Amino acid sequence: MTARLLDGRDLASHLRRELLHRVKRLTNGDPDTAPRLAILRSGLSDAAALYAASLERAARSVGVEPLLLADETDALLRLMDGLNEDPRIAGIVVAQPLGDPERGRQLVERIDPGKDVDGATPTNAGWLARGEPAFVPATALAVIAILEAYDVPIAGRRAVIVGRSAVVGRPVASLLVARDATVIVCHRATRNLARETRRAEILVAAAGSPGLIRPEMVNRSAVIVDCGINAVPAGIVGDVQFATVAPVVSAISPVPGGIGPVTPMMVLRQLVESAERAASPRTSGAIISSTGTEPSMNASRSSVS
Predict the structure, then answer these.
(1) Are 16 and 270 in contact (CB under 8 A)?
(2) Strand locations in 157-299, DSSP E?
(3) pLDDT tens digits, residue range 84-129?
(4) Can you list the residues of the chain whose pLDDT is less than 50?
(5) Which of 185, 140, 143 is CA-nearest to residue 162?
């Protein structure tokens, strides 16, 4: 059997070109008026540093000016009010994890919800839970973007999510429910995890546990989206045992090269939408919306044996 490869790199390229066009339209070609993305980082976390760097590169690639602020959390807290009030700043992202989780929570909660382009604040989490999302965690949006780009049916499908974090598992569940999937959220207290995952038509792995999903835990019709980013001696791997699972499912996203390239584009898409609304309050002018259809990747027939 040959699984279709859900390649996030192709989708990210589509989104990059679209966003670059929208930013040029916003600025009339004047880079000095480009919207700015503030990226805040504190502590020594390699994961946070990698995320901040990927956001910085992605922002520059679409004409958005990144402002990277790396400092102690208390210093960043003092800067936050100024960032919220600065009309040049269209979006603010806190790269996680932070060195001090409690102070990090305070930092996230101080973001103006109208500039929270990674959907991290309690206000935006609440709107998402109500089914009326404003800004959504970018990785969760990337999951939906990949499914829609590859024309994977969602409505009526049984979706199983392994992981219940506030940044992936729970928001993905809300987004899938909004698209009429029947959703099961599994976690460390789930009894007989394999029984649940074998029933999944769409399986989202977001537990942060390398190689958790094995071939005996899936069915042959399953579409798997792997959100795991795990550093092991051999490199970066996902939550799915890719080499052994790929031959026995219908479609799968790789790690790296799946969700990873799409996530920064989701941050930037939300930032550009925010900037468009600010520029034209009565009309969004959006070409790609957080609730719309992604560019179809149907023409791309990449597969993995």
Answers:
(1) no
(2) 158-162, 182-186, 202-205, 223-226, 230-232, 235-237, 251-252
(3) 999 999 999 999 888 788 988 999 999 999 999 999 999 999 999 9
(4) 283-291, 299-301
(5) 185
Sheet with 89-94, strands from edge to edge, namely 65-70, 36-41, 89-94
Q: What is the mean pLDDT of the chain?
A: 91
Beta strand spans in the chain (E): 3-5, 36-41, 65-70, 89-94, 158-162, 182-186, 202-205, 223-226, 230-232, 235-237, 251-252, 303-304
Domains and CATH numbers, the chain: 27-114 (3.40.50.10860), 138-259 (3.40.50.720)
Which residue's structure tokens are 């805040």?
Answer: 40
Is the pTM higher than 0.85? Answer: yes
Q: At what angle do helices 169-178 and 122-129 cross, to 10 degrees?
A: 30
Q: How far apart are CA 280 and CA 273, in angstroms?
A: 10
**Half-sphere exposure for 31 (CA within 13 Å, toward CB):** 9
- For residue 277 the two structure tokens come to 């609304």
